[in-house]
Every structure is written in structure tokens, then in C-alpha cells.
Amino acid sequence: EAQVTQNPRYLITVTGKKLTVTCSQNMNHEYMSWYRQDPGLGLRQIYYSMNVEVTDKGDVPEGYKVSRKEKRNFPLILESPSPNQTSLYFCASSSRTGFLYNEQFFGPGTRLTVL
Amino acid sequence: AQSVTQLGSHVSVSEGALVLLRCNYSSSVPPYLFWYVQYPNQGLQLLLKYTTGATLVKGINGFEAEFKKSETSFHLTKPSAHMSDAAEYFCAVSEDAGGTSYGKLTFGQGTILTVHP
User: Residues A25-53, buried b or exposed e (16+ Cβ, 10 A)?
Assistant: First the structure.
């Protein structure tokens, strides 16, 4: 089954404790992206990657890091989480061919709470 | 720069009534437009999209949307609401702005649709 998986689905942590949210896709997609969803703001892009070892900032990259060492994986790293990073996070992927108009496939989301 | 505005953060309809969710966008170039739906505790799922060609686009679950360039709108409609349509709906736009916005979807704020029996 074609899918994007994220782990963990729920996470409660404390300020300053480094964490990683994993994202994996099995569709051989080149393009992957992270979004955060906040009430009244919709989804905003954090980082994206056009291919292995190619990443760039989205609209709200502060406080986040990413890496793309393998095509299927795109982890999101919070080196020192703060309460304003409490949010619902989505990973998405799509084929690079026609990426502007192709469907992006979304993971189930990770609900992060930073105390 | 592109932006998306969804009018109404909450819309409530009766089962069987018309569903109309409004979306207006701004874009410096011809946009690609999408509607995604998010059911409770799930990720986003594509409902429909407009790329080129016919301006009336049909999607899954009986939804459709019409691209109106003169009004910069892409409103989502369904003739008869069903209880299972209750969800949050997001309008989104992507554009080819000289290669600076690779694959980025700019989302509206979302509209929560409630369907009453």
C-alpha cells in the first residue's frame, strides 16, 4: 500500500529536550516536505527536499532541522524544542515530475506538545 | 507571492442541503488550485485539483469546484450534504514563481464543515 508514515503519532516532551519525528514514504517520491498545522493558520511549510541531500527552508523553518540521506526518509529534528512548537505536524511527498500540480500525499500527522 | 483566503472558519449545513465553501487566492502567475479534506485524526486527502483546461473540476465524494479567474476564486460545492462530509476542508495553491517555491502548497486557514441531521 502506497503511504507516508510518521512516528511517533503523539509526543509530549519538555522544553529543550531534543527530539526527532521520522517520516518515510514507499512511493519512490523525490519531493518531501514538512508542514505544521495550527488553528486558524492552516498548514505552513517548514522545510522541503527536492531529492537526496537537497533541502531548503519553507516559510517557518526557525527551530527546526531536517536531513535527507535516503530517498524514502525525511526526519524532522527539533534540537531544543520550545512551547511555541506545540503543533500538529504533517509530512508529505510527491513525484518531482509535475510537482507543482501533482497530488501531495500526506502522513497521518504527529501531535507534539512541548511543556 | 501567493496567498489563500477561505471565507468562514465554520460552516454548518443540514443533511441534504447545498454545501458551499469559499476560497479566494492571489497569485502573480496562473495558479494550480487544490482542495484537500481532513477527517478527524487523519492526514489530508486530495478532493480535487485544477491545473489547466476545463474550469469546472469534479472530485471525489460528489464535490466539485469552479475556477473563476476574473474573481480569483475556487469555491467548493456539493449539491447534497451527507453526514460523512463533516470534516475540515483546506484550499491550497501552488505556483511556478521562477523556481523559488518548489512544490510548496500555500494553504488557506481551513473551514470546518458540520452537517446536522
Answer: beeebbbbbbbbbeeeebbbbbbbbbeee
Nearest to A101 by CA among B63, B69, B65, B50: B50
Separation CA B82–CA B63 (nearest Å): 11
Contact A108 B42 (CB under 8 A): yes
Predicted confidence (pLDDT) at residue A104 exceeds the cutoff of 90:
no
The 3-state DSSP class for residue A83 equals helix
Cα–Cα distance for residue pair A49/A56, rounded to 1 Å:
6
Contact call for residues B107 and A44 (beta carbons, < 8 A): yes
- Residue of chain B whose alpha carbon sits nearest to that of A93: B103
Please answer whether residues A87 and A112 qualify as being in contact, where contact means their C-beta atoms are separated by less than 8 angstroms.
yes
Identify which of A30, A20, A29 has the alpha carbon closest to the alpha carbon of residue A89.
A20
Percent helix / strand / coil, chain B, rounded to 5: 5, 55, 40
Confidence of residue B8 (pLDDT cuts 50, 70, 90): very high
Model confidence at B28: pLDDT above 80: no
Residues B107, B53 contacting (CB under 8 angstroms): no
Q: What is the residue type of B22?
A: R
CB proximity A11 to B under 8 Å: no
Contact B45 A107 (CB under 8 A): no
Q: Which residues of A touch B4 (CB under 8 A)?
A: 42
